[in-house]
Amino acid sequence: MTSMGNTRRMMSVGLIGAALALTLAAPARAGETPTAATDTHTAGWQLTPTGTDARFRGLAPVDRRTAWAAGSKGTVLRTTDGGRSWRDVSPPGAGELEFRDVEAFDARRAVVLAIGEGEASRVLRTEDGGATWTESFRNTDPRAFYDCMTFFDRRHGLAMSDPVDGRYRILSTRDGGRSWQVLPNTGMPDALPGEAGFAASGQCLVSAGPRDVWLATGGGATARVLHSADRGLTWTVTDTPIPAGDPARGVFGLAFRDRAHGIAVGGDYRKDQPSPQAGAVTGNGGRGWRASATPPPAYRSGVAWLPHSRNAALAVGPTGTDLTTDGGRTWRTVDTGSYDTVDCTPDGSCWAAGEKGRIARLGRH
């Protein structure tokens, strides 16, 4: 371990230094933040009081004060004080819905995605901080099952469904989620037998910049990533080294810090199965993927680049959090608490969410 003086100097560089300080931490019991020799100067996940046991796989932090989370039993929470308190803003009558993704524009405007077969897949939108909700899409095709959603800006967004008639179905909005249209599938490659997306973290469909979007797959013979440079009209597809060949295996989460540099995480979500190659990286927008030299040691469902960093990112899963400082080539476990999804904001905050009402912020304690 470094000396206290060295650690304090590391802490002074801001959020990136705080995340790097996690690598100095001693192993912790499940659910706890690691502790280092610096004690009160340690950086790690700080659990926030949510008052619910819902499982949150949808997470949308806006800034260091405002964040939204969406989860099981139709639960939607919002904080505007940095996680010190959370307000239950769940849509009325949504208790049977499974929210797996949320995209937020600010403290008042957010869009949530419910997953499931047929009419269980829905999109709801609020413009008043969750005081009222409007259903803007309900799937009427029993063959469709929507998994994830992403927005390029405040108006343009996409949602994706598992394959229908052998191809992934893409839903598009041009008005911030108020209305949606199914895009033609003529530019979509054929899906592999058994291939689908994973509604595990809200990160099976992600975007970077005004037009680029990536779609993660699993379940087929190979785990693949599809890329579109025109907001979902036409797509290319590339194999990844993350193992597939089973309905429980594949790429579960993607993160791109720009239109070229991306990280994929995944594995096998079953607790009794290993995930020997749970990470991969790309430097050319997904045209090619390389296996992480030292991947996360177990299944990971969520991944996020640290703000304003070219090389640092966090990956999370039920058995822990891993940190990379070399763009996803090597990973080190820094926390053993259970989280399903992770996201960071431009103003320098990182958040994670998961089972049993767990929502945490990366900070000092």
How does this model look, in words?
It is a single chain. This protein is mainly beta and 365 residues long. Helix content is 4%, strand content 39%. The protein is built from two helices and 28 strands. It has helices at 4-11, 15-21; strands spanning 43-47, 56-61, 67-71, 76-79, 87-88, 98-104, 110-117, 122-126, 134-138, 145-151, 157-164, 167-173, 181-182, 205-208, 212-216, 224-228, 236-239, 249-256, 262-268, 279-282, 290-291, 302-305, 313-317, 320-324, 332-335, 341-344, 350-353, 359-364. The strands form six sheets. Strands 6, 7, 8, 9, 10, 11, 12 and 13 form an eight-stranded antiparallel β-sheet that branches. A four-stranded antiparallel β-sheet has the order 1-28-27-26. The protein has a four-stranded antiparallel β-sheet with strand order 2-3-4-5, with no helix packed on it. A hairpin with a 7-residue loop joins β16 (224-228) and β17 (236-239). The radius of gyration is 19 Å and the shape is globular. The two termini are 18 Å apart.
What is the structure about, briefly put?
The chain is 4% helix and 39% strand.
Question: Secondary-structure blueprint of this entry?
Answer:
Elements: H1 4-11, H2 15-21, E1 43-47, E2 56-61, E3 67-71, E4 76-79, E5 87-88, E6 98-104, E7 110-117, E8 122-126, E9 134-138, E10 145-151, E11 157-164, E12 167-173, E13 181-182, E14 205-208, E15 212-216, E16 224-228, E17 236-239, E18 249-256, E19 262-268, E20 279-282, E21 290-291, E22 302-305, E23 313-317, E24 320-324, E25 332-335, E26 341-344, E27 350-353, E28 359-364
Antiparallel strand pairs: 1-28, 2-3, 3-4, 4-5, 6-7, 7-8, 7-10, 8-9, 10-11, 11-12, 12-13, 14-15, 15-16, 16-17, 18-19, 19-20, 20-21, 22-23, 23-24, 24-25, 26-27, 27-28
